[in-house]
């Protein structure tokens, strides 16, 4: 192992020393573009923003430090027929040769961007610094004084449009005295265009709107005029008033080609539902009521582009549809211009069968899991999505003495049924359209067999999910019932629980029959919208908040029936205890894009859960734990905390490494290496704590005046394989500050020991 690491160091050193070999790829009288910087004399003009206009950029750096991809390319020879040279060039990055033409284009585009921001008198100059065959380029921006709009005038030839604009004056974004900004002018142009398109002006577009800006000599004032031309003026074929269009008919073509429909309508059936014509051939694959509930284009209404987009959005949530297309055909009824809407719906596959195989690693015990899932996307002809999944897992359990069968097996079955609407009695269709929520009913059964015990978990849930405005998502779990049943516990395991009863009562509570009847709400916001971390190319952030409660309703009913529990400790439901707690979690992640190859990510996660009333402790499944691939990566999963607690209880100790409070802090620098490989350097911090003092974990209780001393820290490197549809992640973490140790052992970063401090993690997807 050490020999391989030394070989790697030697290879990197040789590549770095061979950096001068890049010179052979630089033509005579040309220069290697070494650095590009943007300098500005105005804080409002940010160099980081202006960098996006730079047409030619220098070779990328790993972790913004070393141009290793260029050095890898430079290590190749000039003979491109040799295989090793082709490989080095493929994974490397060819030297960027300074291009004067690209500098001129950058200068022009950068100047245009600054002037469009209102600095009409700005200038952009280019400074160069040459060192041997390398060149540094500096773009120097001098903004000057900004121009402001002294007066706004409107020249609107069409009186219909003029009346609408003036009535909407409260929403006009251009004001006298504001800075002249081309981007704001374009936004106002688009806003007015969309407003008119939503008011029936089907043929209106933003080309009818133009601006005339006149500067006043000797001042920094701009006189601005917005011109809205009459219909056809832009084509030079005379002018007329813009006309509004009404919807005459709405026709849904169910898996029928619209062109064939126009050519031959014979043999097709038509159903009239509400104000819709539903046209199909042979068999209707969606219930008419479902189509009506997802339609937003109505007969007799003025044309509205927003209604068209809303229809597209609503139909996209129907899994049975492969795609939808909306087109309009113009017509005339008397003097009224009309539109016939044709909505083509293409049917997706009804049934899907999928398989999945996973590797598992629980606290160092390796295993495998396999699952098969059957999906029906249209079970009741309303685009209801039925999924049935069967799962099996096997894991070799180590460290269990006295058990002949040292393995873990798991069998599970789960079923879920999604409805593409808000399923609740006595709700009007208008309300369902406004909410635009999905409903989900699910049931699960899981059977776990370990050498020490058997445990079954059965659950049933009813929830709603919907997408809100401004890129937010919501989930409301109306009810989630979980039943934990322990059909078998070995004699040795029962003896262990008896022994631990006085030391840690939580351990026994975690292995008893239990009901969990919970209700919860989750809010998620991502500034990049629906984009995933794999596709986000600009700086963004995300927020997630979750709150849930359990047992309050049952506790209230039990209290009404009996003032005190029969057993003197807790109320029971069918002679089985039920959990009562409240739990809240918060996550924030900030993704800062440095350039097209480097990014910096910050994450903070915190949570607190409070058992009360009928519960002395949280159910084991609801307790927090620290360590693992998505937490403090210097520790394996469920091996850190609570607080400074250090265990000596062997393989069963993962129960003790839990808490009621959790804190995670993560910093990660991500860089693209080559091909589909990405790298990361990270620093993690965090731990879990208990709210109440446990006899076996006295050092694990949370205290405001000391918890910060018990925050564990780790650092490390990671490799990610970005396969587009999947990201495989390998992280190696080293302990830096270990609150579970004392004196000098508390700071392993001072004297690291690989065998003691290193932890390897394999996971799928980014950690945050």
Descriptive overview:
- The protein is α+β, with helices and mostly antiparallel strands and 768 residues long.
- Strands 12-13-14-15-16-17-18-19-20-23-24-25-26-27-28-29 form a 16-stranded antiparallel beta sheet.
Lay out the secondary structure.
Layout: H1 2-17, E1 32-40, H2 47-50, H3 68-74, H4 83-91, H5 100-116, E2 123-131, E3 134-142, E4 148-156, H6 159-167, H7 182-197, E5 209-215, E6 221-228, E7 245-254, H8 258-263, E8 269-273, E9 276-280, H9 288-294, H10 305-315, E10 321-333, E11 336-347, E12 351-362, E13 365-376, E14 385-396, E15 407-419, H11 429-435, E16 437-449, E17 453-467, E18 472-489, H12 491-500, H13 505-509, E19 514-526, E20 540-550, H14 552-561, E21 572-573, E22 576-577, E23 581-593, E24 598-611, E25 661-674, E26 677-689, E27 712-722, E28 727-737, H15 754-757, E29 758-764
Parallel strand pairs: 1-3, 4-6, 7-9, 7-11
Antiparallel strand pairs: 2-3, 5-6, 8-9, 10-11, 12-13, 13-14, 14-15, 15-16, 16-17, 17-18, 18-19, 19-20, 20-23, 21-22, 23-24, 24-25, 25-26, 26-27, 27-28, 28-29
Helix pairs in contact: 3-4
Q: Which key terms come to mind for this protein?
A:
alpha+beta, 16-stranded antiparallel β-sheet, 5-stranded mixed β-sheet, 15 helices
Uncertain regions: pLDDT < 50 for 5+ in a row? 531-536
How much strand content do the residues show?
35-45%
Mean pLDDT: 85
Could you give the count of β-strands? Answer: 29
* Helix fraction bin: 10-25%
| Number of discrete helical segments | 15
Main-sheet strand order equals: 12-13-14-15-16-17-18-19-20-23-24-25-26-27-28-29
Determine the N-to-C terminus distance: 31 Å
Radius of gyration: 33 Å
CA-based shape? globular
User: Class by helix and strand content?
Assistant: alpha+beta
Biggest sheet statistics: 16 strands, antiparallel
């Amino acid at each position: 192992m050490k020999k391989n690491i030394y070989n790697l160091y030697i290879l990197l050193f040789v590549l770095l020393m061979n950096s001068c070999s890049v010179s052979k790829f630089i033509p005579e009288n040309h220069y290697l573009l070494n650095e590009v910087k943007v300098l500005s004399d105005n804080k409002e003009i940010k160099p980081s923003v202006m960098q996006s206009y730079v047409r030619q950029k220098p070779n990328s750096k790993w972790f913004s430090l070393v141009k290793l991809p260029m050095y890898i390319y430079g290590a190749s020879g000039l003979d491109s027929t040799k295989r090793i040279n082709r490989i080095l060039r493929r994974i490397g990055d060819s030297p960027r040769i300074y291009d004067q033409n690209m500098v001129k284009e950058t200068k022009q585009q950068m100047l245009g961007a600054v002037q469009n921001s209102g600095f009409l008198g700005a200038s952009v100059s280019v400074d160069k610094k040459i060192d041997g065959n390398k060149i540094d380029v500096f773009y120097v921006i001098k903004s000057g004084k900004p121009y402001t709009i002294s007066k706004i005038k409107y020249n609107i030839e069409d009186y219909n449009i003029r009346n609408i604009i003036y009535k909407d004056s409260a929403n006009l974004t251009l004001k006298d005295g504001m800075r002249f900004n081309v981007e704001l002018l374009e936004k106002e142009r688009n806003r007015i265009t969309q407003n008119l398109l939503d008011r029936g002006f089907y043929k209106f577009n933003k080309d009818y709107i133009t601006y005339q800006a006149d500067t006043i000599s000797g001042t920094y004032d701009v006189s601005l005029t917005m011109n809205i031309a009459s219909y056809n003026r832009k084509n030079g074929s005379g002018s007329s008033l813009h006309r509004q269009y009404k919807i005459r008919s709405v026709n849904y073509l169910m898996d029928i080609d619209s062109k064939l429909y126009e050519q031959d309508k014979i043999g097709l059936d038509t159903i009239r539902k509400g104000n819709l014509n539903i046209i199909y051939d042979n068999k209707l694959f969606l219930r008419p009521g479902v189509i009506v509930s997802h339609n937003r284009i109505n007969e007799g209404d003025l044309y509205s582009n927003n209604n068209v987009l809303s229809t597209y959005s609503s139909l996209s949530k129907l899994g049975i549809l492969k795609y939808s297309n909306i087109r309009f055909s113009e017509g005339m009824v008397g003097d009224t211009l009309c539109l016939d809407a044709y909505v083509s719906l293409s049917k997706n596959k009804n049934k899907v069968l999928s398989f999945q195989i996973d590797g598992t690693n629980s606290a160092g015990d390796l295993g495998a899991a396999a699952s098969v899932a059957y999906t029906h996307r249209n079970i009741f002809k309303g685009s209801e999505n039925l999924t049935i999944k069967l799962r099996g897992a096997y894991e070799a359990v180590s460290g269990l003495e006295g058990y002949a069968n040292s393995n873990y097996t798991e069998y599970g079955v789960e079923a879920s049924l999604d409805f593409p609407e808000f399923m609740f009695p006595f709700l009007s269709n208008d309300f369902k359209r406004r909410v635009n929520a999905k409903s989900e009913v699910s049931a699960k059964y899981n059977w776990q067999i370990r050498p020490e015990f058997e445990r079954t978990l059965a659950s049933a849930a009813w929830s709603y999910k919907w997408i809100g405005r401004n890129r937010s998502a919501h989930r409301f779990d109306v009810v989630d019932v979980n039943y934990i049943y322990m059909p078998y516990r070995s004699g040795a395991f029962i003896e262990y629980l008896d022994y631990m009863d006085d030391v840690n009562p939580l351990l026994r509570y975690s292995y008893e029959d239990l009901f969990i009847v919970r209700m919860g709400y989750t809010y998620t916001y991502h500034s990049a919208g629906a984009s995933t971390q794999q596709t986000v190319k600009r700086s963004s952030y995300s927020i997630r908040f979750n709150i849930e409660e359990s047992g309050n309703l049952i506790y209230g009913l039990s209290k009404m029936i009996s003032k005190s529990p029969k057993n003197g400790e807790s109320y029971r439901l069918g002679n089985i205890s039920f959990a009562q707690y409240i739990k809240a979690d918060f996550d924030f992640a900030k993704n800062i894009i440095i350039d097209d190859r480097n990014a910096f990510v910050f994450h903070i996660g915190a949570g607190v859960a409070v058992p009360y009333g009928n519960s002395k402790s949280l159910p084991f499944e609801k307790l927090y734990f620290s360590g693992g691939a998505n937490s403090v990566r210097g520790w394996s999963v469920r091996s850190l905390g609570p607080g400074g607690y250090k265990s000596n209880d062997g393989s069963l100790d993962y129960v003790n490494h839990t808490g009621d409070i959790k804190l995670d802090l993560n910093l990660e620098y991500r860089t693209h290496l080559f091909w589909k490989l990405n790298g990361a350097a990270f620093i993690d911090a965090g731990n879990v704590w208990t709210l109440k003092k446990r006899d076996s974990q006295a050092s694990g209780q949370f205290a405001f005046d000391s918890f910060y001393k018990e925050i564990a820290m780790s650092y490390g490197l990671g490799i990610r394989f970005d396969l587009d549809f999947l990201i495989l992640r390998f992280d190696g973490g080293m302990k830096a500050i270990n609150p579970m140790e004392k004196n000098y052992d508390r700071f392993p970063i001072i004297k690291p020991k690989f065998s003691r401090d290193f932890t390897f993690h394999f996971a799928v997807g980014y950690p945050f």
